[in-house]
Protein: Radical SAM core domain-containing protein
Amino acid sequence: MGEISGKKNLSYTEVFSLNGAAEANILPVTSICNISCVFCSHKQNPPGVLSYRIAACTPDEVRQVVSFLDPARPVIIGESATRIIEGEPLTNPFIREVLSAVRAALPHTAVQITTNGILLDESMTDFLCRLGRVTVNLSLNSAVEKSRYTLMGDACPGRALRNTRLLKSYGLPFNGSIVAMPHLVGWSDLEETIGYLEQCGAETIRLLLPGFTRLAAPALRFKPALREELNDFAAGLRHRAGVPLTCEPPLVYDLKPVVGGVIKGTPAAAAGIRRGDVIHSVNNVPARTRVQAFRQVFKAASPEIIVAREEGLVPLQVKKEPLERSGLVMDYDLDPVLVTDMALALRRNGAKRALALASELGSAVINSGLMQFLEGEAEIEVLTVKSRFFGGSIGAAGLLTVADFETALTEYLRDKPGRLPPVALLPEPAFDRRGRDLTGRSYVDLEQKFGIRFELL
Ligand code: SF4
Structure:
């Protein structure tokens, strides 16, 4: 029932396991969608990308793979996983049976469903409420009827807007997301949509700047400065928005564990934590990055937190169960464990020097992490790798290919002949479990070409 582009048909379980869905706790349910967004990522893929398209999966197929999901982490449905073309989950005619099968197997696990909201009518909202522990990520994108047609080809824009209003009355928690295209629909559209989502009870609102590839139509392209402009726009609205407003990809250059926002009615809000607080320590362990602080709070039972504010250090307690969400909203920066793993990789290979190949979006924080946390004599140089295969504005590690790494290393050798260290570290998100990139090439090709050791981290 699955299909790999240009190759043999794969079964649902093969697609599930090949895609690494189990590791990400992602349950793909269909590649079919009921609208056609201009920014839909798979429309701009260059030829040669191996991606899978699946029809609506059945409850029986889900029962076969559900035991591979981690009950301690939310099950993610409707979110794009790199190799599966994800569609609108509520178009799956078996979606209620599929969700019931997940609930029967994982009675206490949170389920997170990303949907465009068109089919999230009263009956579906009621069903999700009854299922329990469900959070909706609503990709509304625009609350302006004309723009919904421009952006998504939504010919009946009233449906998603009506359904959004229902969520609050049913008490179904939801986060709103907006693919920000001010170059197509204007900044006022974004502002109106943020206001609409807030009024309808969204817990958080996420502004996503879509990437475009070298094959994107001219109308979808934008200048690089738009990322900063979007960030400034969000910063200007934050002081009057009643909910945390975040931008993706986040514009993060340092590792200061600053709180980006706090969700109303959560343990963090009850503890008195505020946007702009800097987490100083969690249970007396110094907070080193946003990711580390966030995870420590998430894992702990009622952690004691010290935050830094204008008036000095303030002790607070977040009363919560272990693995219960705290309500903190923080941008993603770096897990310091990555630096520890890099140092271990050097030691494993008996090397003193290594090259860490990083994406354009990740290299600044990796550099900061190495400067702050790398101990001893180890020397790790960061080499920023440009996405040439996808091109355009693409800068994420998960979309880098072996050919991109090859080009970056060849240029490095041209600039610094004879300086190639014995070990190079590659970003793991660029590869599947078999070490193959999105075009099917293995990173082992790099070992053969450059004659040094490569590790995925
Ligand atoms: S709703 Fe999602 S899957 Fe459907 S076309 Fe839009 S971006 Fe693609």
